[in-house]
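Ticket #301: bound-state structure for flavin-adenine dinucleotide.
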Amino acid sequence: MSGAAWVIATDTKYLVSMVTAGAALGAAPTVVAVGPRDLAEAAAESGAGQVVWLEPTAGTPAEAYGPAVAALVTAAGPRLLLASSAAAARTLLGAAAAALGAATVSGAIAVEASGDKVAVKCSRLGGAVVETFEAAGPVAAVCQGYDAPAPGGAAPIESADLGQPAALTIADEHPAPGGGGLTEAERVVGFGRGIKVRADMAMVEELAAALNAAVGCTMPVADDYKWMDQYIGRSGLSIAPKLYLALGIQGSPQHTQGIRDVKVVAAINTDPEAPIFRRATYGIVADLYEVVPEILAALKS
Ligand SMILES: Cc1cc2nc3c(=O)[nH]c(=O)nc-3n(C[C@H](O)[C@H](O)[C@H](O)COP(=O)(O)OP(=O)(O)OC[C@H]3O[C@@H](n4cnc5c(N)ncnc54)[C@H](O)[C@@H]3O)c2cc1C
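RESOLUTION: The complex was predicted; output attached.
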């Protein structure tokens, strides 16, 4: 197995766009597909030159195949490794990059061969800036791609058997409190540190229920307060509902990166200068503790 570019995939997220990007190094990339047979078949039709398939055993997460993927990659020695931002894919990318001694970058949107170097263009500040990195050695990139129809083709699928995965099992899986279906929801009510105490989440949840919306939050609410498991933003979830109602959210670039694909943003914030108003279609400069009960009353009547 060889090839200038390798793509590590644990699902079909950005698969075609990553294969297309990797082909810029002059050859159709090899895809390492860690998942069910369907994934390997999708990879075979993605424009890849070949597919190496690892099928996780029942109860074993894709992440357990880090050592196996790292061994495959180091044996082939590609110049470029690509993976989507899916949690399992970027975890495997990290394992492979470490084994390969590759530089790591994130937010890659395009790749170019630049003499004997590889140039990786990365999106920064929510797409406002494009930064180009030039790597003289191997480089591993977490991609910001797009979902495109497969061009077709039938790359050979080679089943890899690299022995036992690492001793990692899925011990428990349960829906996140209040955060279910965030990425699929048509409406999302998001809240930030404008909500003062945990008990006030009940008001947010009541509003979300009345709007048939999912509930999301900012990073400090999840990471510092531990009120929810998941948050929206650059290092959290990207959401794409028709309506995002932002309550007491400042609107930092890290947060708004996760709402780029929202159609309509409505924001309530006491600070007229809050950056969220630059992203919002509708804005109310007011205390959410006054406005939310009014919205609830209006919805009920
Ligand atoms: C590397 C890195 C990655 C990050 N990734 C993320 C990420 O993925 N997602 C994310 O969310 N953040 C992320 N952050 C944090 C981000 O920079 C902000 O600090 C964070 O989003 C702010 O959260 P907040 O809006 O809840 O809080 P604050 O900044 O405290 O803002 C609270 C807002 O509520 C308003 N407010 C207060 N009281 C009321 C009231 N009664 N009524 C109405 N409005 C009120 C205030 O005016 C203020 O605008 C990241 C930071 C770093 C450094």
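RESOLUTION NOTES: The pocket of flavin-adenine dinucleotide is lined by residues 192-194, 218-221, 231-236, 248-250, 252, 254-255, 258, 268-271, 274, 287-289 (CB under 6 Å).
TICKET STATUS: resolved
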